[in-house]
Amino acid sequence: MTITLTERAADQIRRQLIKRGKGLALRLGVKKSGCSGFSYLFDFADEIQETDELFESNDAKIVVNRTDLSIFEDAEIDFVQEGLNSMFKFRNPNIDSTCGCGESFSLKKHEKLQEI
To answer: According to a count of CB atoms within 10 Å of the terminal CB, is the N or C end of the chain lower?
Structure first.
């Protein structure tokens, strides 16, 4: 199980944690929402919970609750600038499709993902 960060994403995470003045990692999650089924959640992790898995890539840390791990399996996270907007962008092989606005996604039919 791996989740990787591009150097740009790792830099952004480190900058945001420094700006915030505390925190160990970026916390990733998902929730059911939107027209396609799921959307990503972002938060800061100030501590690691028993149910968390910690990943490190390019000297930055990511925390994911174990119940969401299969959704992020083999995903790569980048940080991009598109016009006036900047955001984390996922290259996630577990995503089947995204909605027109890009805010939500549906999952591929996958044995490991059926639990969600």
So the answer is: N
Domain ranges of the chain: 3-115
Tell me how crowded residue 33 is: count the other CB atoms within 10 A of its CB. Answer: 13
Give CA torsion, residues 16, 6, 87, 47, to 10 deg. Answer: -40
pTM for this model (two decimals): 0.81
- Please give the CATH topology (third level) of the domain spanning 3-115: Hypothetical Protein Aq_1857; Chain: A; (2.60.300)
Amino acid at 100: G
Residues 10, 86: contact at Cβ < 8 Å? Answer: no
Collapsed DSSP state (helix, strand, coil) of residue 10: helix
User: From its phi and psi, is residue 4 left (phi > 0), alpha (psi between -120 and 50) or beta?
Assistant: beta
pLDDT tens-digit profile of 63-97? 999 998 988 899 999 999 989 999 999 898 887 77
